[in-house]
Amino acid sequence: MQEFDKYMSPYSHEELMERCRKIKHVALDMDGTIYMGSTLFPYTHKFLDTLTENGITYSFLTNNPTKSHKDYLIKLDKLGIKATDEQMYTSSLATIDYIKQHHPTAKRLFTLGTPSMQEEFIKAGFELCEDDPNDRPDVLVVAFDTTLVYSRLCRATWWASKLDIPYIATNPDWVCPTDQEVILVDCGSLCKAIEGACKRQPDVVIGKPNPNMLLCIRDKMGLQSDEIAMAGDRIYTDVATAQNAGSLGVLVLSGETTLETALANDPQPDITALNVMEFANLLVEARKK
């Protein structure tokens, strides 16, 4: 099997330096990229400091909707990372934006999601339906739900069987990274359970690899797509998001994806690095040329 010390790329070194030289903003996945579970990687602070020292801004993107964006800011703060509301974008917030844009008259939702996620929807002006066949929603939203109740899964499947009710999933992830000896069943797996029971897939899956999260950052910051990099530990969400948005896709091997999986993927990520610090080193090198 091919091995490497720091990074690899399908581009020549000159081409890679040219792409890295353009980067003005880095969108960061969180779990598996800057921390694992509740453990901050030892290089994360140096990585963020390096970006700042080189005039590169950054934001945090996560497909995990179990916490509100405020919860994530609190978690980051406990890990010693100071971030603002503008730097945090979750799949819950992206789902809210999508519903308001594509279903502007929708007010009532049936959701599979944690209390923190549900609070985000309530604050956005939506009403949440009860587990009751007479409490019909305008939209069904299925998310990664660590507080899942079996009866609500059954109710969500019932509403999914009604083809006139829009069915939205917050993210495609099959499992959530963890530093514990357990497999955390994520939104994609819940959607597969619903599909197995009623034969319907979500009408749309909002989170990464949907490019909307990156495109929102691009437009808010007045950047071009090739001035943004997306760094994360998953090819099928993080790297795919960047590729779908026309941005630089950086895979780090600090989370879910193994080197063997990375090498087998087609197309290859723009950069495959051992961790985000190795990516930061490339950005610094590019700016010295």
Task: Explain the overall architecture.
- The structure is a single chain.
- By secondary structure, the chain is of the alpha/beta class.
- The protein folds into two domains: 133 residues, HAD superfamily/HAD-like (Rossmann fold, 3-Layer(aba) Sandwich); 114 residues, HAD superfamily/HAD-like (Rossmann fold, 3-Layer(aba) Sandwich).
- The radius of gyration is 19 Å and the shape is elongated.
- The two termini are 32 Å apart.
Short summary:
By secondary structure, the chain is of the alpha/beta class. 39% of the residues lie in helices and 18% in strands.
Tally of strands: 16
> Mean pLDDT, nearest integer?
93
Corresponding CATH architecture of the largest domain: 3-Layer(aba) Sandwich
User: Which ranges are low-confidence, i.e. pLDDT below 50, for 5 or more consecutive residues?
Assistant: none
CATH topology call of the largest domain: Rossmann fold
Shape: elongated
CATH class of the largest domain: Alpha Beta
Binned, the helix content reads 25-40%
Counting structural domains, the number is: 2
Query: Which strand order do you get reading across the main beta sheet?
Result: 1-16-15-14-2-5-6
Give the key terms.
289 residues; alpha/beta; Rossmann fold; 2 domains; 7-stranded mixed sheet; 5-stranded parallel sheet
How do the strands and helices of this protein lay out in sequence?
Layout (H helix, E strand, L loop, with lengths): L6 E2 L4 H9 L3 E4 L6 E2 L2 E2 L3 H10 L3 E6 L6 H10 L9 E3 H12 L5 E5 L2 H9 L3 E2 L10 E4 L7 H11 L6 E3 L5 E2 L7 E2 L1 H12 L5 E2 L6 H10 L6 E5 L2 H11 L2 E5 L6 H6 L6 E3 L2 H13 L1
Parallel strand pairs: 2-5, 2-14, 5-6, 7-8, 7-9, 9-10, 10-13, 14-15, 15-16
Antiparallel strand pairs: 1-16, 3-4, 11-12
Helix pairs in contact: 1-11, 2-11, 6-7
